[in-house]
Structure formats: structure tokens, C-alpha cells
Design a protein that fits this description.
Layout lengths: L1 H5 L10 H11 L4 H13 L3 H12 L6 H17 L3 H15 L5 H20 L3 H15 L5 H20 L3 H15 L5 H24 L4 H21 L4 H13 L3 H13 L5 H12 L7 H22 L1
């Protein structure tokens, strides 16, 4: 029985039977601290399979205490994610949530909230957007009234990630509404981490308004109204993150469709030069964006960005 329970990782498989039994019996006396130390040692040695197993053992020690057990489970989920064992990571996140959701210890509340956030993001990576959204909604409903800074950050991130998930599901109205909820809730918050989430929400909302305008292009008055709102959101986002190339690139696209060609040229040139989300990442992302809900005006914008991209590469080559 001992061999079945404790040899799952094969860590004793190379030893003779009696030696294996001795080593296994020895581990039965390990404390939480023993398993936790072994897990960290394994993790830092990039032995992630062993680290995940050791944190599983640490979380199961009866007298470890709730904080230690929850932290061990959380560390295990992060390691499983790194190993791309996504389904197992989600199961472990759910175990942590189910076990500790009613625990009001501040540290544990933060771990549960972050587990919900990470689980939702992981479900999104697994293309399970409906489940991801349900997880984010649960986090928001559970913790929206909690004023603890760390938990406020998790709620803000959940709102933004939910907006992203709606966008991936081609539900721009729901995405825009979710981003607006985040903006309305946290726009006056001065905490840097939350200001960043508001800036990202403004960019996300501006981009979805841009796509919505392209979809309704035949109704030019409605499209122009959507674009003006998008421009306002993107400018507000840049006030919070002036160095974000992606936001400035989206602004360039909006300006182009509004007939502000010179402003679009200036914005895209600055976007390409941005250290954050500029350069090649911006160029390829913009090309992909142009291909969504294509309209006649996209031809001129594509020609402009191709010209600027060629100029940007030439300047970069001359400096190298």
C-alpha cells in the first residue's frame, strides 16, 4: 500500500525494494516545512514534476494549518500550469476554492480570489470562454464589496479578462459593457495596479468600438459616433499609460477612419517607436485587425502602416 501511494513520481523506482520501503517510510515523518522546502528546492532546480508532487504532499499534512495548506495548493497549481497540465491545474484551483471559500482569513481570501482569477484565465487559454466568464462572474460577485487592495486588483482584472473573453466570443456589446463596468467602478482609483487595469479596459473598449464601427460602416452616422467614442476612450487610456504602443496604434486606426490622416500618421509612428507593445508586435497585430470586417478605407490604412513599418525597419537597421 505504501508503494502505491508514495511512488507515483518514480522518485524511488531505481532503488532495491527494501531500500525503497525504508525511504518511503522515512517520508511519512515529513512535516509541512519538509515538503515545502523540498518543493521549493525542486522548483528552483526546474524539476517541476517533483515540485508539484511535493506541494501536493505539503497541502495534505493534517496539522499544517489552513494558510500553509492553501498556499501549498496554490503553488502546486502554478507549477501544473507551467507544466501545461491545464486540466489538472483547473481541478486543483477548484479544490482550493471549494475548501477555503468560506475562510475569512485575509491571506486565504486573497489566495481564493487569485485562484478564481487564474482559473478563469486558464479556462480562456483552453478555449472554454463560457466557463471562464462564469468563473470571473463568480469572483466579481463574491469580492466586489471587498476593499482590500489585493482583492480589488483581482476583481478589476476579472472584469477586464471577462471583457477579453466576450471579445473572443464575438460578443462586442457584452465586452464593451464589461469594460465600462470596470471603468465606472475604478476610474478614480489611484492605485497603480488598478490604474493599469482601467487603462487596459479603455483600450479594450476603444478597440471593440472600432470593430463595431467597421461592422456598421454602411450606417456612416452611427459608425462615426462609435469612432468618436472610441477615440475618447483611447485618449483616456493613454493618459494612464502614455507609453503603450498598442493603444496608440488603435488610436491611429480610429483617426484614419475618422478622416484624420495626418493625426493617424503621427500616432502610428509613435506607436511603432513605443517600448511597450510597439514595433513588430504592433505591426503584426494591426495587420490582423485590418482583416476583421474589412471596409474600403482599410486599403489606405494598410498602405500607410506598410510604408511606416518599412521606414521603421530601415531606421532600426541603420542604428544596428
Amino acid at each position: 500500500m505504501f508503494l502505491c501511494v508514495h511512488c507515483g513520481s518514480g522518485q524511488f523506482g531505481s532503488f532495491p525494494p527494501m531500500v525503497r520501503l525504508h525511504k518511503i517510510l522515512h517520508t511519512l515523518s515529513y512535516s509541512y516545512d519538509d515538503w515545502n522546502a523540498r518543493a521549493f528546492d525542486a522548483y528552483h532546480a526546474k524539476q517541476y514534476e517533483d515540485a508539484a508532487l511535493y506541494w501536493k504532499h505539503a497541502s495534505s499534512i493534517p496539522n499544517a494549518g489552513a494558510v500553509n495548506s492553501a498556499q501549498a495548493l496554490f503553488n502546486r497549481t502554478l507549477t501544473l500550469h507551467q507544466l501545461k497540465r491545464h486540466a489538472e491545474a483547473c481541478t486543483t484551483y477548484q479544490q482550493l476554492i471549494d475548501t477555503y471559500a468560506s475562510n475569512n482569513t485575509p491571506v486565504i481570501r486573497e489566495l481564493v480570489a487569485e485562484s478564481m482569477l487564474n482559473m478563469g484565465a486558464l479556462l480562456g487559454e483552453m478555449q472554454k470562454q463560457d466557463e471562464a466568464i462564469a468563473t470571473f462572474e463568480k469572483l466579481i460577485a463574491t469580492y466586489s464589496s471587498d476593499n482590500t487592495p489585493a482583492i480589488r486588483e483581482q476583481v478589476a482584472k476579472a472584469m477586464r479578462n471577462m471583457g477579453v473573453a466576450f471579445g473572443k466570443m464575438q460578443k462586442p456589446t457584452e465586452a464593451i459593457s464589461t469594460y465600462q463596468q470596470l471603468i465606472d467602478t475604478y476610474s478614480s482609483d489611484t492605485t497603480p495596479a488598478i490604474r493599469e487595469q482601467v487603462a487596459k479596459a479603455l483600450n479594450g473598449k476603444g478597440f471593440d468600438l472600432l470593430l463595431k464601427a467597421k461592422k456598421t460602416w454602411q450606417n456612416r452616422e452611427q459608425a462615426q459616433s462609435l469612432l468618436r467614442e472610441a477615440r475618447n476612450d483611447l485618449l483616456a487610456g493613454l493618459e494612464r499609460r502614455p507609453g503603450c504602443g498598442m493603444t496608440r496604434g488603435n488610436l491611429a486606426y480610429v483617426q484614419w477612419l475618422l478622416g484624420e490622416a495626418q493625426a493617424a500618421e503621427d500616432s502610428f509612428r509613435s506607436a511603432l517607436a513605443a517600448a511597450q507593445n510597439g514595433g513588430e508586435k504592433l505591426y503584426h497585430g494591426t495587420v490582423t485587425d485590418i482583416e476583421q470586417h474589412t471596409i474600403a478605407e482599410d486599403g489606405g490604412f494598410r498602405a500607410m502602416i506598410e510604408r511606416q513599418w518599412a521606414e521603421h525597419q530601415a531606421v532600426k537597421s541603420s542604428r544596428d
